């Protein structure tokens, strides 16, 4: 059975939408500002679907697991604060120990979409910290792109928890892009705490294509006449970006929600390059396309450095957590990246309630969500589920994995 994330990329019929890097020639539409280096294009006929990259060796990877990996340090109050600060999400459950201890959680929490930090990652061609996200032992020289993730949150991640993660490859399939074949790898990541209790599971889709030899990359870089000009990232010399203040709202109950209700928007920006660097420092992922302009333009064919897909996940997650409130539970979340955002953009996370139903006696609220920027582009879409308490009800803190 395909995982939740894999079902969004049907083997025969669907074509992946615009991905986080936005430069694959298999996309539904490509921004005119994006340049395609020649090494990203495979000449017609050079590799047909009959020359499948899904060899018996590749297929044999399905079902394999990595060894459990415990993070170098436990979740800390400093890490939770840095994550909240980097995402401009001053939720008291992350930054205010007294408020968190007085809540139903009885302690400080780590933001649920960022419970793993890459500590002291090695520095390579693409930067540092992102290799583990796409490190699949394929028998060809490849790089991976973020195709989407489907999270299930099973219990709170507390400050002080030691997080261990393990990956299992659940599916590998191939699709033909306009410029060549793509290999989709679906991995299930399970995170547990020091008691062996599952914190979350996430089905992650990475999309792989052949990486060019180093000499080809150098030749293309050497052939460039220079960098293209970009809009200078805000703020201006006489400006300071104001910090976001927490606005406590009224806790919604299940009975208060109906289909068609719009979620309270989350608006971020204008984003700056400092936002991107601060996020890299908070989560340990220093991919160069997010901060190195020459690399982004010359080596990757991008018009500018791009906003991290993982940072945009946080903005959409904040949208859902605001709906849940401190008495609710953010249960499930799927995001697919379809375009790029840049420094200077204002990003708006929006959503609408699509279903209200009970599961096991608890009130579930399903939503469709999206990210748009001030240029009119929709750069991410997804769906999520929160559980809201009924009037007079208190929700559990532990939940089962869904199929």
From TrEMBL:
<protein>
    <recommendedName>
        <fullName>FAS1-like dehydratase domain-containing protein</fullName>
    </recommendedName>
</protein>
<dbReference type="Pfam" id="PF13452">
    <property type="entry name" value="FAS1_DH_region"/>
</dbReference>
<feature type="domain" description="FAS1-like dehydratase">
    <location>
        <begin position="62"/>
        <end position="199"/>
    </location>
</feature>
<dbReference type="InterPro" id="IPR029069">
    <property type="entry name" value="HotDog_dom_sf"/>
</dbReference>
<dbReference type="InterPro" id="IPR052342">
    <property type="entry name" value="MCH/BMMD"/>
</dbReference>
<dbReference type="InterPro" id="IPR039569">
    <property type="entry name" value="FAS1-like_DH_region"/>
</dbReference>
């Amino acid at each position: 059975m395909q995982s939740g994330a894999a079902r969004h990329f049907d083997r025969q019929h669907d074509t992946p939408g615009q991905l986080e890097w936005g430069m694959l020639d298999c996309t539904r539409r490509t921004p005119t500002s994006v340049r395609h280096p020649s090494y990203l294009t495979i000449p017609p006929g050079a590799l047909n679907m009959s020359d499948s990259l899904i060899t018996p060796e590749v297929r044999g990877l399905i079902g394999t697991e990595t060894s459990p990996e415990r993070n170098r340090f436990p979740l800390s109050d400093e890490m939770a604060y840095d994550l909240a600060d980097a995402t401009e999400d001053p939720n008291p459950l992350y930054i205010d120990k007294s408020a968190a201890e007085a809540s139903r959680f009885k302690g400080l929490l780590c933001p649920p979409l960022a419970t793993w930090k890459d500590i002291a990652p090695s520095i390579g061609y693409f930067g540092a910290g992102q290799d583990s996200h796409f490190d699949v032992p394929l028998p060809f020289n490849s790089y991976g792109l973020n195709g989407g993730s489907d999270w299930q949150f099973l219990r709170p991640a507390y400050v002080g928890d030691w997080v261990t993660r393990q990956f299992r490859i659940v599916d590998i399939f191939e699709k033909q892009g306009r410029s060549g074949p793509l290999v989709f790898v679906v991995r299930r990541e399970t995170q547990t705490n020091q008691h062996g209790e599952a914190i979350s599971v996430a089905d992650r889709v990475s999309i792989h294509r052949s990486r060019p030899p180093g000499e080809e990359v150098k030749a293309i870089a050497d052939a460039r006449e220079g960098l293209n000009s970009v809009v200078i990232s805000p703020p201006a010399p006489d400006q300071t970006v104001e910090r976001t203040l927490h606005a406590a709202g009224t806790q919604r109950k299940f009975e208060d929600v109906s289909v068609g209700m719009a979620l309270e928007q989350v608006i971020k920006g204008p984003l700056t390059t400092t936002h991107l660097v601060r996020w890299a420092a908070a989560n340990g992922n220093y991919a160069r396309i997010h901060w190195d302009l020459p690399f982004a333009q010359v080596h990757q064919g991008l018009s500018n450095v791009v906003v991290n897909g993982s940072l945009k996940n946080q903005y959409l997650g904040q949208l859902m957590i605001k709906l849940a409130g401190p008495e609710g539970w953010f249960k499930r979340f799927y995001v697919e990246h379809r375009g790029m955002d840049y420094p200077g953009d204002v990003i708006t996370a929006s959503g609408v309630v699509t279903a209200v139903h009970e599961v096991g006696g608890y009130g579930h609220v399903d939503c469709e969500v999206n990210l748009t920027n001030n240029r009119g582009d929709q750069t991410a879409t997804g769906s999520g589920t929160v559980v809201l308490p009924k009037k007079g009800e208190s929700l559990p803190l532990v939940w089962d994995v869904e199929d």
